[in-house]
Amino acid sequence: MTRASLTIEKRDASGKSPVARRLRKTGRVPGVMYHSDGNVPFSADALELAAVLRKGANLIDATVDGTEHLTVLKDYDVHPVRGSLMHIDLQAVTMDQTVRTTVQLVLTGTSPGQKEGAILTQGIRELLIETVASNIPDQVEFDISNTHAGDSIILRDVPMPEGVVALDDEGSMVVALTVPRGAKGSKGLKNEDGSDMTLEQEDAAEAAEAAAESAPDGDAG
Q1: CATH architecture of 3-93
Q2: Where are the domains of the chain?
Q3: Cα 89–Cα 79–Cα 7 angle in degrees, nearest 5
Q4: Over the chain (221 residues), what is each successive 10-residue block's mean pLDDT?
């Protein structure tokens, strides 16, 4: 679990756009810390906040007026063009509290499917998860070493760390290994004219061979 510290300052709670714009012009990002004792509107230094997000911290020790609060990242907004942080929400928690947060979904290993001519596409890269604060993983990993051309992996197929529940649609596509039409086969099979078989032709040839081998012998005359 990655943990980071962030110093925040209370701010005007009006929420009006001109106030938020003035904050951003001074290099600060407006935000809200949601707390059981009352929500705290705040601002944070943009560079410090960006460093915390780059670190991928799951838990953030936010200090305001000399008091430290354990928080998780609830949400943040990024400018669609400039890519700068526009707003951030933090949720005050305790270590034994069940929380919802997002973590990165990272593929590990090398897929044999790519050597077989398939194009690998990763669908979702971020997961919404639920677990206790003390159990938030840095990331969720999925090993693609056993995936092959034509495979499609959905979220239901991805094992979660103990105590972690994925909240996204279990049918969401995680990895697809798509075979380009007419792609050269990987088994070196040849057509009758000596040309290389495509993956589709290799699959068809192997299916025909398997069918022939499983067919019952003809009746003796």
Answers
A1: Beta Barrel (2.40)
A2: 3-93, 102-178, 184-213
A3: 40
A4: 91 72 90 91 94 89 94 90 91 94 94 91 95 94 95 97 97 94 55 64 70 64 47
Task: Indicate the burial class of 208 (C-beta count within 10 angstroms; 0-12, 13-18, 19 or more).
Answer: exposed
- The pTM (predicted TM-score) of the whole model is 0.71
Judge whether 96 and 134 are in contact, CB under 8 Å.
yes
Write out the chain in H/E/C secondary structure: CCEEEEEEEECCCCCCHHHHHHHHHCCEEEEEEECCCCCEEEEEEHHHHHHHHHHCCCEEEEEECCEEEEEEEEEEEECCCCCCEEEEEEEECCCCCEEEEEEEEEEECCCHHHHCCCEEEECCCEEEEEEEHHHCCCEEEEECCCCCCCCEEEHHHCCCCCCCEECCCCCCEEEEEECCCCCECCCCCECCCCCECEHHHHHHHHHHHHHHHHCCCCCCC
Between β-strands 173-178 and 59-64, what pairing exists: parallel, antiparallel or unpaired?
A: unpaired
Quick count: other Cβ atoms within 10 Å of Cβ 103? 20
Measured distance CA(57)–CA(4) in Å, rounded: 6
CATH number of the domain at 102-178, out of 3.30.1330.40, 2.170.120.20, 2.40.10.10, 3.10.120.10? 2.170.120.20
Q: What angle do CA 4, 7, 9 make, to 5 degrees?
A: 150
The answer to whether residues 97 and 131 touch, using CB atoms and an 8 Å cutoff, is no
